[in-house]
Each structure stands twice: as C-alpha cells, then as structure tokens.
Amino acid sequence: MLFMSFVYIIRPIYEDWIIQSYVTSLELQLKHIDYYMEEFVSDTQDDVEYLSRSRELLVEKDALTNFLNVTEEGFEYNPSEEEKKLVNAFERYIEANEQIEYIYFGADNGALL
After folding, report:
1. 86 burial class (0-12, 13-18, 19+ CB within 10 angstroms)?
2. Which of 9-13, 41-45, 56-60, 75-79 has the weakest average pLDDT?
3. Do residue 113 and residue 60 come from a single domain?
4. Range of the domain at 89
5. Residue 6 pLDDT more than 60?
C-alpha cells in the first residue's frame, strides 16, 4: 500500500520532469537552428549583394544564350566570349566559397546560365 502511494506521488512529478526536460531540449535545438538559419540567410544576402555589384558580371543580356529559342530540331550551344567570361567568374566565385554549390543566372529575355 505504501508503494502505491509512493507511485501516485512520484509519477506526476517524474512525468512533469520528463516533459520539461524534453521542452528544454527542444527549445535549445530550435535556438541553434534559428542561429544557423540567420547566419545562412545573412551570408546569402552578402553573396547576392557582392555579385550584384561586381563589374565583372555586367554583360549585355543579348550577349547571353537565349534558351527560349530551343526547338525540337535541336539547339547548338555557342556561348559568346562575354558569356564564357561570366561563366568563368561564377566558377571562380564557387571555388572561393565552398558553401556555394551552384549559381543560377537568368535574364528577362530567356538567357540562362
């Protein structure tokens, strides 16, 4: 009988402790996720700002291959010198920034890199 009383007293305390431990652990994990997401977004914003100000990346959109002209008969990819320079600049930027795997570039005329 004494054991049953002990269980009735201890069980709610133990369950509350488990729940509180779980909540505390979850809150800590969410703080870590929030921190790393903020860092990721901040770094990405910095990268986009840097790329948008780079004179090396300023090219006429007509100098880029327009992939909207692809037909069922085929398409021959023949990049201009400006386009090659742009691709090389992106490749160098990716090599210098190991957290970046891909850079996508698109213009309103259908040009894509």
Report:
1. buried
2. 9-13
3. yes
4. 56-113
5. no
| Identity of the highest mean pLDDT range in 7-16, 33-42, 100-109 | 33-42
Cβ atoms 107, 82 nearer than 8 A: no
Which residues, at least 6 apart from 39, have a Cβ–Cβ distance to it below 8 Å? none
- Asked whether the predicted pLDDT for residue 67 surpasses 90, the reply is no
Residues 20-40 as b or e (16 or more Cβ within 10 Å = b): eeeeeeeeeeeeeeeeeeeee
Whether 112 and 69 map to the same domain: the answer is yes
Side chain identity, residue 43: D
If we measure between CA atoms, which residue out of 103, 88, 91, 95 comes closest to residue 52?
A: 103
Q: Are 86 and 64 in contact (CB under 8 A)?
A: yes
Q: How many domains is the chain built from?
A: 2
Task: Give the Å distances, CA to CA, from 29 to 26, 72, 84, 103.
Answer: 5, 51, 44, 30
